[in-house]
Design a protein that fits this description.
mainly alpha, 0% strand, rod-shaped
């Protein structure tokens, strides 16, 4: 009987802890940018990876925009008034 009571108390205590965990976590704020403050080493790593990928995407976007601007400038209509009549068949 004593073991049964202890087991029941432990189960209820564990259940109460599990149910209360989400209340202890921070909730997102309206118009929040970025992640919530990390609580684990894994999340710190995820934040670092997120920042790295963001900067890489930014650099690629700037590079592609520069290439597009160069092509627009290089092949503008005023510089090539008569287009080539070459046909590749």
């Amino acid at each position: 009987m004593q073991v049964h009571r202890r087991l029941t108390a432990a189960l209820w205590g564990g259940l109460g802890t599990v149910v209360a965990l989400p209340a202890m976590a921070q909730s997102p704020q309206p118009w929040q940018l970025g992640f919530q403050p990390p609580q684990s080493a894994v999340m710190h790593g995820i934040e670092g990876l997120h920042s790295l990928v963001l900067w890489l995407m930014t650099m690629v976007t700037i590079f592609v925009a520069a290439l597009l601007a160069y092509c627009v400038w290089r092949f503008r209509a005023s510089r090539n008034p008569t287009p080539s009549r070459i046909s590749h068949h």
